[in-house]
Fold each of these.
Amino acid sequence: MDANKDLNSINYLRSDQDVDGKQILLTLLRNKRLIASITGISLLLGLTYALTAKRVWEGQFQIVIANQQSGSSSLNFLQTNPGLSSLLGGRSGLTNKLQTEVEILKSPSMLMPVFSFVKKTKKDNEGYAVPRAQFFTWLDSSLNISLKKGTSVLSLAYRDVDKELIVPVLNKISSAYQAYSGRDRNRNIEKGSIYLDEQISKYKIKSLKSLRAAESYAIENDLTIKSLSSLKSSGIARINQSNEGNFKALSLPLEKNSAANKEIDVETTRVAAANRIRTIKQQLKQLNLLVDDNEAFIFFGRAMPELSGIKHFKTLDNIEEQLLLKRLNFTENDKAIVRLLERKEFIVEAIKKEVIKNLEGTRQVAESILAASKRPKGVLVKYRELLAESSRDQNTLETLESQRRSLSLDKAFSEDPWQLITQPILLDSPVAPSRKSIVIFAFLLGISSGSGIAIYLERKKDLCYDLSELQSLINLPLLEQLSIKDTNSWDEPIKLLAQGQLSELRNKSIALITIGDIDQTATSELVKKLETYLSSCNVFATKDLSTAANCSSQLIITSMGVSSRNDLRKLKNRLSLQNKPVIGWISLGPNSDYLL
């Protein structure tokens, strides 16, 4: 049951939708003359506008937005240095995004001079002034600025009704953009140069002070480093000269390697003396062990380079040579050999004493040097700190001076502005308005407006054009449909009615109640024919229900498209108030279910 009910509801809705669509179509067909008239007027107006409207022309050019961060090394230094970046406002390297650049290029600061040129030209040529407040309207309607997807190519198109104005405007925009491309770079170079000059002056003084402090401390504590020989020869006079611009001379002692890592002479001397003392002590210890072994003692002594100059070694060599010759001819008991052996023993003892004496003397000298090279605790550490500070200041100064020279070179060799891919050109044909589109739009506007007006007017009249709807509103039997276009065909149906459904009305009065704008001639004809076939029957037509109530029977006469729904509802309510029979109703109009 429920399924059948749902199916019936769906079918009913579909039927209503079909009827509504058909009713709209029939409404449009009934008012085709009105729709055609409105459409014709709209087409005429559209065609007139298309032919008389000023043609809009367009010009274009393309430009490559270069990456300003990929410039010189000095600018890269400025961008990566936090201090310099903050000084320059942090713009370089942070806001150099393509989309940001596009928005800047659309701003009034860039395009207001171009807009002023357009205003002045239009005022001179056309005699009217463009208000300043219309800048953004002009920007939105006349300019199209966009980036090609995935590239840094900027496309710009300008539209205007003044064909001769387009190329000059594009040239001005192109010039403004190219000037802008180098503006920030030059400003950064200028600001960077000022900053670097200030820092160079600051570090010249600071480096000079740190160098003077290191030298003063070295003089007070008898300290030098091996690379300070040139400084020692120059003295304070050279420091004073540096204050007048010869700062490079002072940098000779402190080369690019950190001075704190270089050898300090007094420390080198101390270390060398201590090592020497340890070596001598070890040598004396070894010689004491060999004192009873003359041959080993002499061999060890000869091996020490510092003892090679002892003259007794040569005397010993002569004795050894004489013994070798004597032994070729004499025995060991020979007096000459015995005397040579005694002399050899004496020389060996002399060598031992001299070796020991020389080593002891050398040790004493080293101990004196070691004592002289000692400094109070912390002196060398502080000296290294002073040297390191002086070296850092000097290296910073050299870096700043190098960057200053690079900025000077960058300024001398300016980069090319943003490159134009295409020169500003004017398209051969106008881009607007499209006459074909205007005519099509006017046609569609006329059709839609005419249809809307037709539907509105019919709904306002509230006339019923549907026979089934008319039947449901009257809710009485439909006796016959008579066409007013062919009254000659009425005889047969009226005769049949008189013999059938109306046969009981003979010799009675019948009121024909007309509803709506019924044709009077057709109504009179219907009255005559009914009287003819219903003998002795009084038939008359009226719109007054009170008059019709005096008759024995009533018959409603109406038709599609002549009676409103409201009138039919009122008629139905009023008929129910009177106790008079209403036989039915006759449709007196076009012989069709739908009036066209």
Amino acid sequence: MTTKKALSKFSIATIVFAAILVIGGGASAFFLMNKSPKQAYFHAEINTAKSMANLLEERYPNEFKWRDVVENSITENTYDVSAEVSNYNYTIDDQIASLINSASATLQITTDPNKRHAKIDLSSSLANSTLDGIQAYITPEKIHFTMPFIEEWVQVKDDEFGRFMFYFSHDDFEGDEKLGLSNFMKDNPFFSEADQQYLQKEYVNYAYELLPEKAFTSTKENIDIYEKQMKATKISMTLTDQEIKNLFTSLADKALNDKKLHEMLEVNLRENTLLSQYSTEDWDMEFDDFKADFKEELNESIKRIDDLYFEDGFHSTIWTYANSVVKRDIRASLGNNGTTEATLSFTGEQLIDKTNQQWDYRIEVADEYDDYGMDFSGNLTWQDNQATDYLTFTNDDFSITYEGDEQLEKNEREFSRLVRFSDGYDEFGLNWDGDAIHERDSKRVNHSFFVEVEGDTVGINFTDQSKIIKNLEEPEGEIVQIGEMSEEELGDYFFYELYDKFHAWLGSFMFETGLY
């Protein structure tokens, strides 16, 4: 595992992307009753995003309520999946079809969000034979697991992981590595609420303040959106080549010299599940290298910013009506050293209300070699607890179409969905039907997916059942603490006792399934 390669690739593209995110991010603290064009621009963007989120919650109230239940209650979640082949011809023979139709798997996950404990139970069946007894129990301090060929629970503590793995690989482990269970089931394993507030204040708000007021203008304009006439507010943001460079440079300079940001990165990366497998000594060396690469790459990016060339700057115009964006026109050109290499445009219109959400957008990218365009349109209708949806992605080479119908009656939902893929030569359709029932203390959702491939109908059935339970029982019976074993004891346990039991069990299982 290499931290440097995975984490030190900070390029100008990263800075550009981060800058765009923070420009479009939360700056609502600056919006006053009498908004300037700058304040009105971001207020409309944020209000539009919030409106869409609220409409989603209104359409799926039962699902959002159950999400809150799972986050605050002990729940047992059972997922069943099975396959089905029908109408098959010469492409699938009877034996294979029978084997597929007999296969099923069940995954049960029970969680206690307060204690941050979870139990996982996996079972499956094939050709009238059942495989079960694969279980795990995980806490922020330790992990237990058991298999169908043993009766005991095997346990490894988080702080014993390195010592345990060292016996198997002296070259890759030193003995003090951790598995990273301390982050298990955290709401946000990376940045704490205080960290997020710091980033909001020091970077999101900072980027907002850097945008010059004179870059924004506002006028009134009569427009037609989906045959609806409206007197809209047209707000334009125009950034010059130099203003864009100043924004990127300021953000990069701030990140380069922000010791608190560097400390936050170190703390969060140390606690990350994968990176925590490093030994303390290795981690210190890796993070020292990471910080050096981070600063070097930022310095190089700052130097490269001067070479960027935005011939016509960056132009973004939105038309707003009732504090919501109804039309957009975004255009930019990007190059290096005074030469334009590519142009980008994003244009379209949308109309968002409680019963109907419509949009038609087109994105175009062009360089000296090629022009690329894609259209994205949608029409979502939700009225009287019934939905009719239609979405399309199209360009010159392919199209993706989604059609959906839903009906909600109190706590019961039925839906039928179809996704079509076409490249001009072949067409492929995925059918997705199902229903859901949400009670106060339980839910059950049935999904059925099926496609036709060369005349064969292949389907997958998936059931998701959940219910509130009173307690999550910890493992009982014999517990083998392999993290405390010596190297000789581990060798005897794994290569003799477990191997012999596994070999005997495997032979019996293969005989039962007819695969022997």
